[in-house]
């Protein structure tokens, strides 16, 4: 089988490619990625000479490039997206172009050539849970709250519309917060690990009592694999870690693992429209695919911290250049507006 992985040079995409080449060595994998600030060929350096792997630099907003790439494979796993909520608040336009228009090109191409698609989405499309609410399921109504989650919700609706209208062969997964190696140091876990390694403070938004459901990235990859093997066309699968953690508790764990103390924690102005709680009920994936997360938060977090300690030059390169401009605009503003 030949599989096209869009966004394969990013965090989850690069972990997925490593996972796929290890678990399906007979398959050919093509990584299609525009190499935005979040895409990094260093993430795939160890496999660049693998004869079963090919990199194609391409943008999903370029319709012809998408058609050329999709035509040559059997299956498309679509990770490519703008993914950081804070950036979507600063500049929604690129989220709409990439996440919605780009996905339309993927859909038109799989429709044209009759290919199988798996669309990667997020639990953020469901909005925010109250403390007493049950976790999200595949039946939860969409209620996206940020420009990022609204753009992902739109892309999910388009996938379902193409299944319903044109009968394309597609599935969707909505996954909770991933963590692990190669995560760009703008999201909370890698940002906080790298700040602590650099002797900087960590900016906790608001009261720090927001909850996220953390899943180790390899568990996500295995879920996508099982959906490709056993999933029913047109169906959606919710994948989660079964692991709800308050941001402040996560922060304290990281501070501890990095050998620092609470003086490293700085409470800053809240993210506008900040979703309070996400949690996933993955019963459908468990019952129909035999999937459940296997990596404990303790093991996964330790493994992640060790990876960032061993890859400080990778982190430094990610945090240079354009990132610094973004950091200055966003985080310095947050730090300046403490409670
Ligand atoms: P990421 O930001 O680390 O990587 C995104 C990748 O997409 C990068 O390699 C980037 O270069 C590429 N890309 C961006 N725009 C592109 C374009 N126009 N054309 C081609 N490539 C482009 O993101 P991630 O965290 O790995 O997320 C991957 C997918 O998983 C996204 O669809 C995201 O919505 C979804 N998701 C992420 C999480 C999470 O916790 N990170 C959870 C659930 C779902
Ligand atoms: O739920 C899945 C989603 O998880 C994915 O779809 C997104 O692509 C991914 O970015 C992630 O979104 P979040 O907004 O939950 O992730 P982030 O790491 O940005 O923030 C996690 C929590 O930590 C959130 O409550 C905001 C808070 N936070 C974040 C940063 C960057 C802080 O308190 N301080 C920070 O500096």
From TrEMBL:
GO molecular function (one): dTDP-glucose 4,6-dehydratase activity
Broad enzyme group: lyase
NAD(P)-binding domain ranges (all copies): 4-301
Reactions accelerated catalytically: dTDP-alpha-D-glucose = dTDP-4-dehydro-6-deoxy-alpha-D-glucose + H2O
Source taxon at top rank: Bacteria
Gene3D superfamilies reported in the protein's UniProt record: NAD(P)-binding Rossmann-like Domain, UDP-galactose 4-epimerase, domain 1
Family named by the database record: Belongs to the NAD(P)-dependent epimerase/dehydratase family. dTDP-glucose dehydratase subfamily.
Official protein name in the record: dTDP-glucose 4,6-dehydratase
């Amino acid at each position: 089988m030949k599989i096209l992985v869009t966004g394969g040079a990013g965090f989850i995409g690069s972990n997925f490619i490593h996972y796929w080449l290890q678990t399906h060595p007979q398959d050919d994998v093509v990584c299609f990625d525009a190499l935005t600030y979040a895409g990094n060929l260093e993430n795939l350096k160890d496999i660049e000479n693998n004869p079963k792997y090919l990199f194609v630099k391409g943008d999903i907003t370029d319709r012809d490039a998408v058609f050329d790439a999709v035509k040559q494979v059997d299956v498309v796993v679509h990770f490519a997206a703008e993914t950081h909520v804070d950036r979507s608040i600063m500049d929604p336009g690129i989220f709409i172009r990439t996440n919605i228009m780009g996905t339309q090109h993927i859909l038109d191409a799989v429709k044209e050539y009759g290919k199988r698609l798996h669309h990667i989405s997020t639990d953020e499309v469901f909005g925010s849970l109250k403390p007493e609410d049950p976790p999200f399921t595949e039946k939860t109504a969409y209620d996206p709250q940020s420009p990022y989650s609204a753009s992902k919700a739109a892309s999910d609706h388009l996938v379902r519309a193409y299944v319903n209208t044109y009968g394309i062969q597609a599935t969707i997964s909505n996954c909770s917060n991933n963590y692990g190696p190669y995560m760009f140091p703008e999201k909370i876990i890698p940002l906080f690990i790298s700040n602590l390694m650099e002797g900087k403070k960590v900016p906790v938004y608001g009261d720090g009592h927001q909850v996220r459901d953390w899943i180790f990235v390899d568990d996500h990859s295995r879920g996508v694999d099982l959906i490709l093997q056993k999933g029913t066309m047109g169906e959606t699968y919710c994948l989660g870690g079964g692991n709800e953690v308050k941001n402040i508790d996560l922060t304290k764990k990281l501070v501890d693992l990095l050998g620092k103390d609470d003086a490293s924690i700085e409470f800053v102005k809240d993210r506008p429209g900040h979703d309070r709680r996400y949690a996933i009920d993955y019963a459908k994936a468990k019952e129909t695919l035999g999937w459940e997360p296997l990596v404990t938060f303790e093991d996964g977090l330790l493994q992640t911290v060790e990876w960032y300690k061993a890859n400080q030059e990778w982190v430094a390169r990610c945090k240079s250049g354009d990132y610094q401009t973004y950091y200055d605009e966003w985080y310095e503003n947050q730090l300046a507006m403490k409670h």
